[in-house]
């Protein structure tokens, strides 16, 4: 399944906010991604129609299994790449900023090799 980078960022943000706050609303996503509320509302409508999220009557956003699969994949990539960059001596802020750029374009094969190498050379969990 191929979706656009911006959609991956939205889904990852929803996962991160849910983990942090226990709930997610459009305004939370807008603040997290520094987007306007109307932009997020348009995106959420599209994600609902495509089956990536559900939104309850109180405006709480929940990832569907389909949305969760993508969000977890991108989140894992973000964490692994950032931690690998930090292990190479990159400062934390730069590592996380750069990992966000890299995570979307890296092939699955290359990512797996980075992950395997990182896990075999550190004692960290991801």
Automatic annotation (TrEMBL):
<keyword id="KW-0238">DNA-binding</keyword>
<comment type="similarity">
    <text>Belongs to the DtxR/MntR family.</text>
</comment>
<feature type="domain" description="HTH dtxR-type">
    <location>
        <begin position="1"/>
        <end position="64"/>
    </location>
</feature>
<dbReference type="GO" id="GO:0046983">
    <property type="term" value="F:protein dimerization activity"/>
</dbReference>
<dbReference type="Pfam" id="PF02742">
    <property type="entry name" value="Fe_dep_repr_C"/>
</dbReference>
<dbReference type="InterPro" id="IPR050536">
    <property type="entry name" value="DtxR_MntR_Metal-Reg"/>
</dbReference>
<protein>
    <submittedName>
        <fullName>Metal-dependent transcriptional regulator</fullName>
    </submittedName>
</protein>
<keyword id="KW-0805">Transcription regulation</keyword>
<dbReference type="GO" id="GO:0003677">
    <property type="term" value="F:DNA binding"/>
</dbReference>
<dbReference type="InterPro" id="IPR036421">
    <property type="entry name" value="Fe_dep_repressor_sf"/>
</dbReference>
<dbReference type="InterPro" id="IPR022687">
    <property type="entry name" value="HTH_DTXR"/>
</dbReference>
<dbReference type="InterPro" id="IPR001367">
    <property type="entry name" value="Fe_dep_repressor"/>
</dbReference>
<dbReference type="GO" id="GO:0003700">
    <property type="term" value="F:DNA-binding transcription factor activity"/>
</dbReference>
<dbReference type="InterPro" id="IPR036390">
    <property type="entry name" value="WH_DNA-bd_sf"/>
</dbReference>
<dbReference type="InterPro" id="IPR022689">
    <property type="entry name" value="Iron_dep_repressor"/>
</dbReference>
<dbReference type="InterPro" id="IPR036388">
    <property type="entry name" value="WH-like_DNA-bd_sf"/>
</dbReference>
<keyword id="KW-0804">Transcription</keyword>
<dbReference type="Pfam" id="PF01325">
    <property type="entry name" value="Fe_dep_repress"/>
</dbReference>
<dbReference type="GO" id="GO:0046914">
    <property type="term" value="F:transition metal ion binding"/>
</dbReference>
């Amino acid at each position: 399944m191929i979706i656009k980078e911006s959609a991956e960022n939205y889904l990852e943000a929803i996962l991160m906010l849910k983990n942090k706050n226990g709930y997610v609303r459009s305004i939370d996503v807008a603040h997290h991604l520094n987007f306007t509320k109307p932009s997020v509302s348009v995106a959420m409508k599209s994600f609902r129609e495509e089956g990536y999220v559900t939104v309850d009557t109180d405006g709480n956003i929940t990832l569907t299994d389909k949305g969760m699969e993508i969000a977890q994949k991108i989140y894992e990539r973000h964490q692994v790449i950032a931690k690998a960059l930090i292990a190479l001596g990159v400062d934390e802020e730069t590592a996380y900023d750069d990992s966000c750029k890299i995570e979307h374009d890296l092939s699955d094969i290359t990512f797996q090799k980075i992950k395997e190498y990182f896990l075999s050379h550190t004692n960290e969990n991801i």
